């Protein structure tokens, strides 16, 4: 039997994450999690066992708890928690490290109030179109069609491509041969299993593997100081 493609496994993982989130009281917080609850007991070492039943994203979920539905919960949580606690602080630290002063004009209070009052149908249509009001404004302002008709583009890292190529030797070393570098907080055997399943395309663990690799790299650098 032919091995399923990485793309097919990735789509399956996305669907599972989507359904898991929709079954949760706080879908937006569930979708942010990189590690499934079912994997925590095996991965957590003795020092972390007391945290198995804790929710690391409880604060994120609470930030949008007063939203009327999943859509509004997610928007509120991002505005109150994710932006100030993650994106903005990272931007500020990175820019100041290089002596730059960064401004966020779209987060002006008046702009936020205007955006908050826009009808949802002006943001997303039933066909899956996004940023409707911005696209129409760009068209009326005379911007080229390739701008206002362009697909949404993010800044996500091509994790799977990196883990399958340039970073695979790094993963083999830190998440397989030397997986005990994260002991006793995390189980070396569980780390090896997760890495091998991902490397052999049996499961798409890209988010968990990436996080483990960052932690292992940080630990290795710390030990070498």
Set down the secondary structure blueprint.
Layout lengths: L5 H17 L4 H5 L8 H4 L14 H6 L6 H28 L11 H8 L15 H9 L4 H4 L10 H6 L3 H10 L10 H12 L6 H19 L1
Helix pairs in contact: 10-11, 10-12, 11-12
Order of helices and strands: HHHHHHHHHHHH
Helical amount: 55-70%
Count of individual helical segments: 12
Span between termini: 48 Å
How many whole angstroms does the radius of gyration measure? 21 Å
Low-confidence spans: 1-6
| Shape, per Cα inertia axes | globular
Using DSSP, what is the number of strands? 0
The major pleated sheet works out as: none
Short characterization:
The chain is mostly helical and 225 residues long. The chain has helices spanning 6-22, 27-31, 40-43, 58-63, 70-97, 109-116, 132-140, 145-148, 159-164, 168-177, 188-199, 206-224.
Molecular structure report:
It contains twelve helices and no strands. It has helices at 6-22, 27-31, 40-43, 58-63, 70-97, 109-116, 132-140, 145-148, 159-164, 168-177, 188-199, 206-224. The chain is globular, with a radius of gyration of 21 Å. 16% of the residues are buried.
Which short descriptors sum up this protein?
225 residues; mainly alpha
